[in-house]
Design brief:
Bound molecules: 2-acetamido-2-deoxy-beta-D-glucopyranose
Pfam families: MGH1-like_GH (PF22422)
Strand order of the largest sheet: 15-14-16-13-17
Low-confidence stretches: 1-15, 447-467, 595-600, 609-618
Number of helices: 15
Shape: globular
Radius of gyration: 26 Å
Largest sheet: 5 strands, antiparallel
Keywords: Glycosidase, Hydrolase, Signal
Protein name: Six-hairpin glycosidase-like protein
Organism: Talaromyces proteolyticus
Number of strands: 25
Distance between the termini: 16 Å
GO molecular function: hydrolase activity, acting on glycosyl bonds
Helix content: 25-40%
Length: about 675
C-alpha cells in the first residue's frame, strides 16, 4: 500500500442521481414544442434537459439543428467519477485516439457546441481532461483554450475559467517545440493540423508524386494553426486579467499581437489577396505557396484581418465558382488550383484538396459571421444564411439528416463515410453557428443567457441484472436504458413489473405495474432511502409473449470527499497489464486492490479535491504539469507500506497520476489519501 498525503479541503457533495443541469428546477417558458422536433432522435431526455429549442422559418436548418444536438448526445461519454464527461470524435473507438478515446483536433469545435448545453459540467469536464488530465494537447493543432474562454462567455463561470489558467499556460508552452523564433510563427505538418493530402503536401511531392509525402506533408507555417494560437493567446490574456494576473495578461497580449503581425508579414499574400501556407524546409526566404486553401479563411473568426484590405477579397472567393463555391461548398481548395480534386483517388477517408469538410465549414461560418459583424468586408447578411443553408443541405444522406467526415464538393454523396466508423461524426459545430451566427446571440462575460428550459422531473426508472460492486457504495437510484421494438413489430418491450434488491435480499424498490416505463430512454428508479451495498440485483417480469431488453445500467454514487480516500480500484489504469492480487489487501472491505504494476503503467486519480501547498514529485504528475520530485518506493519485502509527500493541488477538481517507471515493476497500489 502506498499512501500519499495531501492537504485536504473537505466538501460534501451528493450526486446519487445522474448529473443534471444545475438549474434544472428553474421553471422556464414553454412557448415552443419541445417534443415533436426531437421525437425521432436519440437521447430525447438529454435533449429536453439541455438544449435551446428554436423555431425558425427554415425547416432545413431547423431539422439539422435538432439532429446535431442528438448526435452530440451520442458522443458524450461518462468516463469515471471525478473525470466526468468527454466528447468523442467517432462513436466507435479508434486506434489513434488518446486517453479516454479523446482526440484534440476538433475539441475546440466540440466545446464551442457543448457550451450551449444547460448542463455546464459536460463541457467543463471535457476542458479539464485537457487542462489538467491526460488529454494530449499536441497531438493535433487546436484552439481549446480559446474555446474554453468563449464557453465562459455563455455560462458566466469566471471562477472555473480562472481556475484553468495554469493548464492554459502549460498548454501554451507545450507548443514551443514547433515555434520558429526567426519567422515568429508556428509550423507543423498538415497531417497534424488534421488535414492530410493538403496543397503543401502535393507541392512538396510534385517531382515524385510520393504518396507518403502527399499524406503527411512538410512542416508548414499555416494560417489555421497560427490563428488558433493567436486565439489561444488572447484567451490566456483575458483569463489572466480576470484572475488579477496583469503581467501574465500583458505578456500574452504581446504574444498574440506579435503572432498576428507575423501572420500579416509572412502568410498574407498581397497578389492572391489571401492568407496562404508557407512550407518550411529549404525555404529560408519563406516563399509563399501559390494557391488559396480554405485554411486561409480561418483567421477571421479569431478576429484576425477584419479590415477591408484583408477580408473583402477572401469573402468574395467564397462565392466564386472558381474559388470555393461548389454545390456542397465550401471546398477545401480553390477549384481553379491544379491540385484541386472533386473526387478521390481511392477509398481512403481524408483528402483536403477539394472535398467539403464540416470541420472547415464550421470555421468558415464563424469567419463569415465575424466579417459581417465587423461592418468591413462588404458582406451582406444573406451571404451568411446562404452558407448555413448549404451546410444544412450537405448534412443529409438518402434524404435523412446525416453527417460523416467529408462530402464530395459537387456530388450528392459523402466521400469520407465508412461503415461503423464515420456515422454522425463529431468534428464540427453546427448549432453554435445557428445560435450565435444565425440567431445572433453573442455571449459576453457580463451577460447571462437563458433559454426555454424543460424540466423533465419525471424520468422513469428501471433495470435488470446482477451487479457486484467493486466495494460498498451508497446509492439511492438505478438508471436503466430500456430497449423496445414493439412499435415497429418486434417482440421486445418494457417489463410488466420490476424489483430491485440490495445486500441480504433487501427490497429497495418495486414497481408493479411498471407503467412509468419510457421505452428507448434512460429510466431512473429511485429508492425510498439511500442504501449502502456492494450488491445489486434487478428483477424484471416480462409482459406475456414479449421479451425485455436492457442497453445500459447506471448506478450513480456520491464522491466521498470527506475521507479524502481515492481508491486505486476506481482509478483509470493505462499502460502495461495490471495483475490483481488482493492477498492481504485492505483497500476495500471486499479486498479490491490494484496490483503489480509493470514499467509504463499509470494510475490516474481524477476529481481529487484540495487546496494545498507543496513540493513536486517525479513519478507524481498533477494536472498534467511536469513533475520533478522523485517519489521513492523502497522494497517492502512483500508487505504493504505507506509513503507520503506534499504536492501542489489547485482549487477544485484535480488529476493525480502515479507513473510507474523502471525499477518499480511490482508495485501494488491501494489508494491515495488526501489530508
Ligand atoms: C501527443 O501526441 C503526439 C503525436 O502523436 C505524441 O508525439 C506525443 O508524445 C503525445 N504526448 C503525450 C503527452 O502523450
Ligand atoms: C504526378 O502526377 C501527375 C498527375 O497525375 C502527373 O501529371 C505527373 O506526370 C506525375 N509526375 C510524376 C513524376 O510521376
Ligand atoms: C513577461 O515577459 C517578460 C519578458 O519575456 C518576462 O521576463 C516575465 O517573466 C513575464 N512575466 C510573466 C508574469 O510571465
Ligand atoms: C533568398 O532571397 C535572396 C535575396 O533576395 C536571394 O539572393 C536568394 O537567392 C533567395 N534564396 C532562395 C533559396 O530563394
Ligand atoms: C474595420 O476596419 C476599420 C478600418 O480599417 C478598423 O479600424 C476596424 O477595427 C475594423 N473592424 C474590426 C472589427 O476589425
Ligand atoms: C462496430 O465497431 C465496434 C468497435 O470496433 C465493434 O465492436 C462492432 O462489432 C462493430 N459493429 C459492426 C456492426 O460491425
Ligand atoms: C411525466 O411525463 C409524462 C409524459 O409527458 C406525463 O404523462 C406525466 O403526467 C408526467 N408525470 C409527472 C409526474 O409529471
Ligand atoms: C444474481 O443474484 C443472485 C442472488 O439474487 C445470485 O444467486 C446469483 O448468483 C447472481 N448471479 C450472478 C451472475 O451474479
Ligand atoms: C454511506 O453513508 C453513511 C452515512 O452517511 C456513511 O456512514 C458511510 O460511510 C457511507 N458508506 C460509504 C461506502 O460511503
Ligand atoms: C417506499 O415508500 C412507499 C410510501 O411510503 C411505500 O409504499 C413503499 O412500500 C416503499 N418501498 C419500499 C421498497 O420500501
Ligand atoms: C499474491 O501476493 C501474495 C503476498 O505477497 C503472494 O504470496 C502470492 O504469491 C501472490 N499471488 C500471486 C498470484 O501473485
Amino acid at each position: 500500500m502506498i499512501l500519499f498525503y495531501f492537504l485536504f479541503y473537505a466538501e460534501t457533495i451528493l450526486a446519487q442521481q445522474p448529473p443534471q443541469p444545475e438549474d434544472v428546477n428553474v421553471p422556464g417558458t414553454n412557448f415552443l414544442d419541445h417534443n415533436s422536433p426531437i421525437s425521432s432522435y436519440f437521447g430525447q431526455e438529454f435533449l429536453k434537459e439541455n438544449i435551446p429549442f428554436i423555431d425558425i422559418p427554415d425547416a432545413n436548418i431547423q431539422e439539422i439543428y435538432y439532429y446535431r444536438w442528438s448526435t452530440l448526445a451520442g458522443h458524450l461519454r461518462y468516463i469515471t467519477p471525478g473525470t466526468g464527461y468527454i466528447l468523442t470524435e467517432f462513436l466507435q473507438p479508434v486506434g489513434y485516439a488518446e486517453a479516454y478515446n479523446t482526440i484534440d483536433a476538433a475539441a475546440g469545435h466540440q466545446i464551442d457546441e457543448a457550451r450551449w448545453l444547460r448542463g455546464s459540467f459536460y463541457a467543463g469536464d471535457y476542458i479539464q481532461v485537457y487542462t489538467r488530465g491526460p488529454g494530449n494537447t499536441t497531438q493535433y493543432t487546436n484552439w481549446i483554450t480559446d474555446a474554453a474562454y468563449r464557453r465562459a462567455q455563455v455560462n458566466g463561470d469566471v471562477e472555473f475559467l480562472t481556475s484553468q489558467l495554469d493548464g492554459f499556460l502549460r498548454m501554451w508552452d507545450e507548443w514551443d517545440f514547433v515555434f520558429d523564433e526567426d519567422a515568429g510563427l508556428y509550423y507543423y505538418t498538415p497531417l497534424y493540423d488534421a488535414q492530410e493530402y493538403s496543397l503543401p503536401d502535393y507541392v512538396d511531392a510534385a517531382e515524385t508524386n510520393d504518396t507518403a509525402i502527399q499524406f503527411q506533408g512538410p512542416d508548414t507555417y499555416r494560417p489555421s494553426h497560427n490563428a488558433y494560437m493567436v486565439g489561444n493567446a488572447r484567451a490566456v490574456s483575458e483569463t489572466a486579467k480576470l484572475a488579477g494576473q496583469n503581467s501574465v495578461a500583458a505578456n500574452f497580449t504581446n504574444l498574440a499581437d506579435a503572432l498576428e503581425t507575423a501572420m500579416y508579414e509572412h502568410l498574407w499574400n498581397p497578389d492572391q489577396q489571401f492568407f496562404v501556407d508557407v512550407i518550411r524546409p529549404d525555404n529560408p526566404n519563406l516563399t509563399q505557396l501559390q494557391g488559396r486553401e480554405e485554411v486561409g479563411l480561418f483567421p477571421f473568426r479569431f478576429g484576425i484581418g477584419l479590415e477591408d484590405k484583408y477580408c473583402t477579397s477572401p469573402s468574395e472567393e467564397l462565392f466564386d465558382p472558381q474559388g470555393f463555391y461548389t454545390t456542397y461548398a465550401p471546398a477545401t481548395l480553390e477549384v481553379r488550383n491544379e491540385y484541386y480534386s472533386a473526387t478521390k483517388p481511392n477509398s481512403y477517408c481524408c483528402y483536403w484538396n477539394g472535398q467539403s469538410w464540416p470541420f472547415s465549414t464550421a470555421h468558415v461560418l464563424k469567419s463569415l459571421a465575424s466579417m459581417y459583424r465587423s461592418n468591413n468586408c462588404s458582406l451582406v447578411a444573406e451571404k451568411y444564411y446562404q452558407y448555413l443553408s448549404i451546410y444544412a443541405t450537405t448534412q443529409h444522406k438518402d434524404g435523412a439528416p446525416y453527417v460523416a467526415e467529408s462530402h464530395y464538393p459537387d456530388i450528392d454523396e459523402w466521400s469520407g463515410d465508412s461503415f461503423n466508423h464515420s456515422e454522425h461524426y463529431d468534428h464540427s459545430t453546427n448549432n453554435d453557428d445557428v445560435i450565435t451566427g444565425l440567431l445572433g446571440l453573442v455571449p459576453r462575460l457580463d451577460d447571462v443567457l437563458q433559454f426555454s428550459p424543460i424540466i423533465p422531473s419525471n424520468w422513469t426508472y428501471f433495470a435488470l441484472e446482477n451487479i457486484t460492486l467493486a466495494r460498498p457504495r451508497n446509492f439511492s437510484s438505478v438508471t436503466l436504458g430500456i430497449y423496445s421494438d414493439v412499435a415497429r413489430g418486434g417482440a421486445i418491450d418494457c417489463p410488466e413489473a420490476i424489483e430491485i434488491y440490495g445486500s441480504s435480499n433487501r427490497l429497495l424498490a418495486r414497481l408493479d405495474p411498471f407503467d412509468t416505463c419510457v421505452p428507448n430512454e434512460l429510466n431512473t428508479i429511485s429508492f425510498n432511502t439511500t442504501v449502502e451495498s456492494d450488491f445489486l440485483s434487478v428483477t424484471m417480469y416480462k409482459k406475456e409473449n414479449l421479451f425485455v431488453g436492457i442497453c445500459e445500467l447506471q448506478v450513480w454514487v456520491p464522491p466521498d470527499r470527506t475521507s479524502g480516500i481515492y481508491y486505486a480500484v476506481d482509478a483509470v489504469l493505462t499502460g502495461a497489464e495490471v495483475i490483481f492480487n488482493s492477498t492481504g489487501s485492505r483497500a476495500t472491505p471486499n479486498g479490491a486492490v490494484v496490483g503489480s504494476f509493470q514499467v509504463g503503467s499509470k494510475v490516474l486519480f481524477s476529481g481529487v479535491y484540495d487546496a494545498g501547498i507543496s513540493t513536486k514529485a517525479k513519478e507524481i504528475v498533477v494536472n498534467a504539469m511536469d513533475g520533478d520530485t522523485v517519489l521513492s518506493l523502497p522494497p517492502t519485502d512483500g508487505l504493504f507500506t505507506t509513503v507520503s509527500l506534499q504536492v501542489d493541488l489547485l482549487p477544485g477538481s484535480n488529476f493525480v497520476a502515479v507513473m510507474m517507471e523502471s525499477g518499480y515493476d511490482a508495485v501494488e497500489l491501494e489508494y491515495l489519501l488526501v489530508v
